[in-house]
Design brief:
It contains 15 helices and seven strands. The protein has two domains: 13-136 and 147-185, Tyrosine recombinase, N-terminal domain (DNA polymerase, domain 1), CATH 1.10.150.130; 205-407, Orthogonal Bundle (hpI Integrase, Chain A). The chain is mainly α.
Length: 413
Amino acid sequence: MSIPKPVALYPTFNEFNQFSFGEFHELKQFLDSGDNWWMAHWTWGKEFLSYIGRNKSEHTFTRFRNETERFLLWVYLVKAKPMDQLRKADILEYADFCWQPPVSWICLANHEKFVFQDGRYVQNASWAPFKLKLPKHSDSDKVPVKKKYKPSQQTLTATFTALIAFYKYLMNEEYLYGNPAQIAKSDCRHFVNDAQVKEIRRLTEAQWQYVISVALDLANQDRLYERSLFVICALKVLFLRISELSERNSWTPIMSHFWQDSEGNWWLKVFGKGRKLRDITVPNSFVDYLKRYRAYRGLSPLPSTGENEPIVEKIRGQGGMTSRQLTRIVQDIFDRAYAKMREIEGEDNARKLKEASTHWLRHTGASMEVERGRALKDLSEDLGHSSMATTDTVYVQTENRVRAASGKSRKVN
């Protein structure tokens, strides 16, 4: 039996609050074409996502939206069975489906779910619920094979997390009276008890030196690169997530978020994951880069109370930069550092710079702090971890580097 091609069910975070079926005529036709419970289930999903949107970050909303949409499409088009009739075996069947989805449900790039045409939102034919993640800088001449799609353990965990939360919400609202996803998770055959050494998603000291030296050289030659230098240093030294430096609907990082206490210590106020505010220690070494960047912006050497300029301003227009714009800035520096290190030290030493993402800078900074002996409790506070156990994984990774170094001296004969 052929599985019907999926359609998008829910719009973006910004479009969600002003949603009207008058603008989403195709979606209304799709829901009306199914069994009478289709619309009810879609409404349950909308209420759940509205709750997530009010109480969680936009990133969490997007992740839960994608998982909720994917599950409901499977319920509609594959299982053809309402949620109140689903049992543990059905959820495990859904996990099998996610492990190897049909090719028609897989795309190769991020696509908008809907396209605005003639005053209405229509389905984007290029969109699909699953995305085959391609390696960075992959060979463009090779045609990706969608059948090779396999979710990571992290992706599978995220699927169950969202599904369990969806069922829990529906139980609290008394729409449903059981949570088969919670029961099914422990029996999912695709989960692996993982005791292997995790790959450290960070730069080595040598790789970081190439990154910072490239950024410095560019800024010294062309003042337009002062922004790049500042962003690179802020992500690494202050352990920032890219979203914490970007402008969002609910928060704009501004210069007065840098503040000095009565002892002369500098701090940065950050709106982070889980909609939590935290203060990060700002080391003296970073203050010099802050002064340098502010001089480029035509500002006084140090921030003052009430200063509302965005920390990283847009190249054109007003306001702060988005995560996507900041990512492009960082990627440009990574690409240049990779090319320089490969030329001088060879591909093997430079390879990880080719794979690096913005989040690697946060891990790099944290790992280097552990290696210099900083207390895990203090580091955990700066990182914004809700538990020291999360920070401890950084320590474990550092211990593995020591273990690997000690193992290199073993002899064959």
